[in-house]
Write a structure and sequence with these properties.
elongated, AOC barrel-like, eight-stranded antiparallel beta barrel, 1 helix, mainly beta, 8% helix
């Protein structure tokens, strides 16, 4: 007991009189659905048989426990290889929840079935919460997602799963 008290006093002295303890519980499973509407804006550039896309955005929704709310999708970069039939993308989703939290989720993913005549393609990847402000802070977590995208419009429906704490 005396050692614990000495450690606490030392911590108070080192950290200026305050001790911050994160009370994150154990990770809990989460799953849900997502919808991304048509693509808005963006800059496309062809280099041979590869298409580079930057700055696309979309609006939509997420439905899944603490990740339920209106969603603003920001696609930072997408590289489409028509020869390989795949693309890679990096995006953020900013979710505004009913309790007025703002949660930013980072996506890294792949699209398969890409070709110039494709009607739909499959998207898969991983997601990670990179920030949460408001009543849901400090929220952490991550997992996987999969969906079907209308290749021409970008409209996407899918599911996600993972853990949050």
């Amino acid at each position: 007991m005396a050692k614990a008290l000495i450690v606490l006093v030392a911590m108070l002295m080192v950290f200026g009189g305050s001790v911050v303890a994160e009370a994150a519980g154990p990770p809990v499973p989460i799953s849900g659905t997502f919808f991304k509407g048509p693509i808005i804006g963006g800059v496309d550039r062809f280099v041979g048989t590869v298409l580079q896309v930057r700055g696309e955005e979309a609006v939509g929704t997420l439905t899944g426990d603490v990740l339920t709310g209106d969603a603003h999708y920001i696609i930072h970069e997408e590289i489409v290889s028509f020869v390989g039939g795949i693309d890679t993308f990096h995006a953020d989703i900013i979710v505004t929840t009913p309790n007025h939290s703002v949660i930013t989720i980072r996506l890294s993913g792949f699209t398969s079935g890409v070709n110039l005549t494709a009607q739909t393609v499959t998207v898969t990847g991983t997601w990670t919460i990179i920030s949460a402000v408001g009543p849901s802070a400090p929220l952490h977590g991550g997992g996987k997602f999969a969906g079907i995208e209308e290749f021409v419009t970008g409209v996407t429906n899918g599911v996600f799963s993972g853990f949050v704490h």
